[in-house]
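JOB MANIFEST
job_type = single_chain_structure
chain_count = 1
residues = 301
[input]
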Amino acid sequence: MRKKVAILMGGWSTEREVSLVSGAAVSKSLRQAGYQVTLIDVQRDVGSLLAQLLPKPDVVFNALHGRFGEDGTIQALLDILDIPYTYSGLMASAIAMDKPMSKSLFEKAGLFVAEHIIISRKDVLAGDFMSPPYVIKPTNEGSSVGVHVVKSERNKVVLANGIWPYGEKVMVEAYIEGRELTVSVMGDQALAVTEITTDHGFYNYSAKYEKAGSRHVIPAKIEKSVYDQAMQMAVTAHQALGCRGVSRTDFRYDGKTLYILEVNTQPGMTPMSLVPEQAAYAGISFEDLVIWMVENAECDP
């Protein structure tokens, strides 16, 4: 008898819809592989979630995205329940979602990061904190939610409405002109380097999830030395944060230096997602990918 797998999906973050698509795709493949699958649309009701997790499944496939789903919160609950789950554990998940903290660890691991400062929301709205071009980011969101690229004084107007629903702290990062690269890691093995191009200006939420929102070149048409460096840097970042299972690391390449942007400890599993695409390039089907994730699921002791 195959394992009983509960798939956590939905949630209440800004990435709810993407999570539902990921969960549905994973469910279809696991059922085809013979697993007993239960879909749980997670709501902000811990009692209801606990009831749906009893009797305990053998494994939880965590298809939640964004805050609460990939920042260590749900991982902590599953650790308490002693239920193995996919992707990284509590600490790695929390650190990866905390952009300033993860950048600090990347630097200590010898990786290049873009110059950045952490300022208050009030200071962002007041302006005059860094000369363009720069990027404004929430300190703890995923999928490029809330990211603004300011390339000149003229397009500062994107912040003029004063709306910033992502907390009091804001990361302002120097914009790296160049190419967007990404590398998936499975276990401790990098799968491939993909170059991402888009007409959206940068790889934002719409570019990630709209049909034809981006174009993926796999393998990336870059020098072999840079390709190999990106593969190694992704593994180094994965290990520096203490990740397990599958992760995906994003880079900017300015023609001279590879700058690490962030590690996504819970990358999407939608039909347009990069991890399944890179796995397929490495000869791993979507079904084999999700089976591997289930069979290698763990929880923190």
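[summary]
The domain at 116-174 is CATH 3.30.1490 (Dna Ligase; domain 1).
The radius of gyration is 19 Å.
exit_status = 0
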